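Figure 2 data, in text form.
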Amino acid sequence: MRTLNIITTATLLFAIGCESTMVGPEYPDYDDDYNDDDTTYVDDTLNVLDIYLEIEVPSLDNIDGYYTIVHNIENYQTSTTLRALTGSYDESQKLEWATDEQIIVNGTVIDIVDSTSYTDEFGEGFIVLNIDGSLIGDTVTVYCTYSDDLQDVNFIDSLKVIIDAIPNAILHDPNG
């Protein structure tokens, strides 16, 4: 009887094990993915490892994980463009943006980035960071997030921007 239980258990484990789904990347069926003249392989599959979210400030230097923007105190506002890289080329992605700082303009609280943007055909999305003199000396954290519905994956990234100022003495240096 014990031998029968062992054989039955082993058979069930083998049968159940053969029905399990493999985990890992799926490889395309090369026979179906060639264009009409059979010269170029077209890979229309998207692996979750190919999509990501990384935000940066192309016009500013990144030093130890911090970007520094210099506000000219003679101007009311200083702006720079932020870029989000997603790796999602097949469809436009809606990016959501936020910061931990806001400014007050004419008594109204204003976000220093717009709340949304969309990626282009290169998988890149852009937004403008607008600061004024009230943020000098602060470090602003900018957040970006998006959800890839095809892969059912959510992404979030952040970066820090130090707000510095050009002093009046440098702006009005008669020797300059």
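Caption note: The domain at 48-171 is CATH 2.60.40.10 (Immunoglobulin-like).
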